[in-house]
Design a protein that fits this description.
There is one protein chain. By secondary structure, the protein is of the alpha/beta class. The strands form 3 sheets. It has a 7-stranded mixed sheet, sandwiched between helices. A 4-stranded antiparallel sheet has the order 9-10-13-12, with helices on one face. A two-stranded parallel ribbon has the order 1-11.
């Protein structure tokens, strides 16, 4: 062993991990920083008031292991979507379920497919599993689903985000049905933002045993800090995921709070509607300014900013992103892809936060006019 004694020997690592590049999440400022956080698609509203009561009850029971399969939570999820409990598995955020899918259906001989651009975690999970990644590029920044390329993809496992991220475009059920019926592999439809859309893919579960749908409680249920997600599918495919699942993968506090949030549908619908109304409000303003936007079915807007002269492009998008950061407003910018480099993604915040955003954008435009 000739390496520096203070460093870990790299030859101990598995082959996939040696080449692996970790996922880079959106910026998370410290609680001491005064920021308007519109960069990671969190819900600006607090969780259901009943969540706190449930947490207090479960704290008294922390000496006991949680239910290993989260049975009560699974029953609530099944009832909500009118499916059987055997069609549901829960995890530590939907990322945990995506990881289970890769663990179960991908390896060095079984590839993973994804749209490009899309949620970058898919690539990370495939990499650490040692699976080849097949990217299906979009033809343009309309982000319309390249149906034939997806259905002809040779991947054993394909991740399809609907509504799509980072664009926010929703794909109609008929289109997803066509993908599911013609793709020769396991199709994972990542519905992280589906609660903000008018349609979802749940009807496909009764038709296609190769379809898995993942959901998260981080966005529409205000539980990003808790990490709860779930997957739905044919009972036989859920059994496969359960074999790959870690025991006690969801603690008892998370199970209880998630159940309380899901059961409080009145609060869920109220906060969701507020977000949708704010999304419409900010979209109308950007439309008046002539900004290009992808029609959003999510809790964010993907838009192409223009400066005071009506000019857009990568330099303009980066300029606005940087300016807002100096003003304590965090948004997301994706310069790595030609289709996204001229856009910024803005999470929907509280009404007063969105008003401040508009004010600061006007200030940025005015500064450009003075140059």
């Amino acid at each position: 062993m000739t390496e520096d004694k203070e460093s870990f020997p790299q030859n101990f690592l598995s082959d996939p991990l040696r080449q692996h590049k970790p996922y880079i999440p959106g910026e998370q400022p410290s609680s001491a920083e005064r920021t308007i956080k519109l960069n990671t698609n969190e819900n600006p509203y607090p969780p259901s008031p009943s969540a706190g009561d449930k947490a207090a009850e479960e704290i008294k029971k922390l000496n006991l292991y949680p239910n290993p399969k989260s049975n009560q939570l699974r029953k609530v999820i099944a009832s909500l979507h009118q499916i059987s409990m055997e069609q549901v598995i829960v995890g530590n955020g939907s990322d945990d379920l995506l990881n289970l899918c890769v663990r179960a259906f991908a390896d060095s001989n079984r590839s993973v497919g994804m749209l490009d651009p899309s949620y970058s975690l898919y690539e990370v999970l495939a990499s650490i599993q040692g699976a080849q990644l097949i990217r299906i590029p979009f033809a343009s920044d309309d982000f319309e689903l390249p149906l034939k390329k997806v259905t002809n993809c040779s991947a054993n496992l394909f991740f399809l985000t609907s509504p799509h991220a980072p664009s926010g475009r929703a794909y109609q059920l008929e289109l997803l049905d066509s993908v599911a019926g013609n793709f020769n592999g396991v199709l994972v439809i990542d519905e992280a933002y589906a609660d903000f859309a008018q349609q979802n893919a749940i009807p496909l579960l009764a038709k296609y045993p190769n379809v898995i749908i993942t959901r998260t409680l981080s966005k529409s249920y205000s539980l990003a800090g808790l990490r709860v997600g779930y997957a739905m599918g044919n009972p036989s495919v859920i059994q496969v995921l359960d074999r790959a699942r870690e025991v006690y993968n969801l603690d008892r506090i998370a199970q209880a709070i998630a159940q309380a949030a899901l059961e409080d549908q009145k609060y869920f619908k109220e906060t969701k509607q507020k977000i949708i109304e704010s999304r419409i409000w900010i979209s109308d303003i950007f439309a008046e300014w002539g900004w290009r936007m992808i029609p959003s079915a999510t809790n964010f807007i993907f838009c192409k900013p223009l400066d005071h002269s009506g000019t857009g492009g990568a330099q303009i998008a980066n300029s606005l992103y940087s300016f807002l950061s100096t003003q304590g407003i965090l948004v997301r910018y994706f310069p790595q892809n030609k289709l996204t480099e001229s856009y910024i993604r803005i999470s929907i915040g509280m009404p007063e936060e969105m008003s401040m955003l508009v004010s600061k954008i006007k200030e940025w435009q005015h500064q450009g006019q003075l140059k």
